[in-house]
Amino acid sequence: MTFQLQKKVNKTRRLPPWLKKRVSSGDAARVAGEVRRLIEDLELVTVCDGAHCPNRDECYSCGTATFMLLGSTCTRNCRFCAIENEPPGFPRADEPETVAEAAARMGLDYVVITSVTRDDLPDGGSGHFARTVEAVHRRLPNARVEVLTPDFLGDENALKTVLAAGPNVFNHNVETVPRFYADVRPGADYARSLDVLRAAKRIGKKYNGRMCTKSGLMVGLGEDRAEVESVMRDLRNAGCEILTIGQYLAPSKEHHPVARFVEPAEFDELKAIGGQMGFLSVASGPFVRSSYRAKEGSDLYFTF
């Protein structure tokens, strides 16, 4: 089976059966409500809500969430992302400790921390990332921490700041194939993202010898199979051990349109190809997102 390019469609097109999810009920709904109330009470932001993730109800009902630092607006305007492009505010000084408090109250043993892109800050927000990782390590010394960072405009000093805090997993997503960068990821650069991953692997070993690197991409924007496999090879050559591949869903009609809905069998093929390329863990499926069931993906690495 191969990827077949189809005419672009907008979000009003009916979703196929494999892209429909049930809403949680019973005890699961109760837990989801508790997580939402905790996030609201502590005035935190999650990428689950900010990015309109289709898995947020499931993740909240499992008692987990992905914390998003540095506000709810972004300095870039990626055409695949639901996060608003507006002037951001000042970083919240107590956010690192508040995230650690939330993680402790949720009883997390795996904490995923991401952020909006803050090109307006001198360090890109890397110091804020580092303080948050350190706060979580202090509060939950046995928990693993995954960071999903922007590219910091390729600044290795910013990378060092984050990595010196000792995250267990460093994630930076390439998101799509190089052909779509100018349209879908203005302000980003494919080669720079690969350089960030290579540098993170090299630098991270100095601070945490067991740190692994991770990246992810979306399919369904109009790419073909050869382009996807080329990105996978590039990521593997950059040292990535963990890979995520999921279906792109347009947040609105104003965003980049969905070209097609990739069938589950094709995701299975990509998972197998990733294994053959040497990735230790490949999560590939319609609902896979970078932080979805992140602990499961890293378990293979840390038990290897």
Task: Provide structural commentary.
The chain has a single domain (20-302), classed as Aldolase class I (TIM Barrel, Alpha-Beta Barrel), CATH 3.20.20. The protein is 39% helix and 12% strand. It has 11 helices and 7 strands. The chain has a 7-stranded parallel sheet, sandwiched between helices. β3, α6 and β4 (169-171) form a beta-alpha-beta unit. α4 packs parallel to α5, α5 (126-139) runs parallel beside α6 and α6 (156-164) runs parallel beside α8. The longest helix is centred in the middle third of the chain and has 18 residues, at 190-207. The chain is globular. Mean pLDDT is 92; it is low at 1-12.
Q: Which spans of ≥5 residues are poorly predicted at pLDDT below 50?
A: 1-12
Measure the end-to-end span. 32 Å
| Major beta sheet, strand line-up | 1-2-3-4-5-6-7
Morphology call: globular
Q: What CATH first level would be assigned?
A: Alpha Beta
SSE sequence, one letter per element: HHHEHEHEHEHHEHEHEH
Helix content: 25-40%
User: What's the number of structural domains?
Assistant: 1
**What is the CATH architecture term?**
Alpha-Beta Barrel
Structure annotation, total helices: 11
CATH topology: TIM Barrel
